[in-house]
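Running this now, will post back.
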Amino acid sequence: MAVRNRMPPWHETIRLANGREVLVRPIRPEDAVPLRAGFALLQPDEVRQRFLYPMKELSTDQAQRLSRPNSRREFALVVAEPLPPGEALIGAVARIAVDDDGRAGEFAILVSHYVNGMGLGRHLMRRLVRWAKGRKLDRVYGEVLESNLPMQALAASLDFRREHGDSPGLVRMVLDVPKPKPRIRSPAPQPVV
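Update: finished.
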């Protein structure tokens, strides 16, 4: 019998189109330092599209906050080199935060230009939606810059619809989370008489 290499929940190894292997896993507190270091490698437009305004650096407090999501209301994944947390360069981050009403979750995804265009945004969005389904959320949404056409196209390809955003220059991409299909139970075997 073959031995399966079991990974913890929400962990998976992916081979990118360029042949490089990356690890998709939940964010860890040890990722705060690599998050700050990787932030300096991002292009200004990447930062603006994710945070919706320009930022020159990710502060220590911000990195600490991002790397320690509240497990009751937030979920965050990173795409990193297959090294221990704290040592791995992080190429993408995806997070979802449940609203106060407990019925919807707001997503945010950032994929670095170093690994952009390899399907990671789609993969991460599907994982966020899967998490939202497990939490029985009704909706997943995200505020996206009107100029961020690639993110809008990605969301639309996954059945998100476009709505007016809360602020000028923003659109809201919304997905009504599909309800899990009911399991069909097999009838109990009848005794043979």
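The longest strand covers residues 90-98. More later if anyone needs it.
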